[in-house]
């Protein structure tokens, strides 16, 4: 496993410590990672709306490019050793996109996404980033109030004590600022209800009689005979493969059809309510879950709100955690910052993007090369020049320029 490989390679990891003993006198660690009535991540992902929400958000985080910039001049830095870890290969087994997707998936499903920072033993520069599954990590406060991360080896069971500087930690909703809380905990009732509806539907199609009703006869039947008739009826008419088969009755047997119950007829409607609730819990627009009313204009606005309300808070946390733990303090003092380019999420609408570039080009913030950089195109000669319209003037100079223009129109 990758975690085993990481600890065999790492030379600066904390020494292994003995497993904590839980007693009534020392209950430290009690309740950690207990889910109670919370559905497990694997169980929750079997609900299509949950899978789509988690997959969609994690894909968005995975595909957005990162870059390093000077926070004052906003100039991009292209030769920093940490960049290849975030943009090409964080470790020997994963691409950068796979790494980011795994972290975000863990954060969404468990409330916490962890990654171990493997550092050079001499320079202390990050050389690898290894994702850690939530169940292997336990944040722990010592008696002095210092935070440590207790990381358990999955194969040997040994526990390592790591300082916060060596662990990237991305949190979900948190009440203490130390550990995140899984969305699944708060959405447990909705997800469990959805799973029950899903199971009900499976049973309905797998076991439901396609000619629902009651068989009656005036003959007094013993229990073995009743069971035999029932089994034979179900064998011939139950299941999707036997739908619409003609029933042949004998010995005075009569069939009385029974209409579908209100519970059966409304369960599809309840599924729609479940999808809406899941949409709210994950802050995922309904159209991205292939639900709700679909229209181009509303979906375009929802896409903007998705970036601003769902992705931006998450990406801000990623930016701050990467900056604080992957850059040295001296570099942060030089205003170096790791940023995520959120424009990539809004590239879908060509007309809107072209209009945006046109406006930004005409009022001066963007040059031709700025636009080309956002489109991943190389610079062109003369493309750094910025233009602005002379039709706009400072208000304080309006009278002066107005008089000058009017005088220029006077006949002499």
TrEMBL record:
InterPro entries: Phage/GTA_portal (IPR006944), Portal_HK97 (IPR006427). Pfam families: Phage_portal. This is Phage portal protein. It comes from Butyricicoccus pullicaecorum.
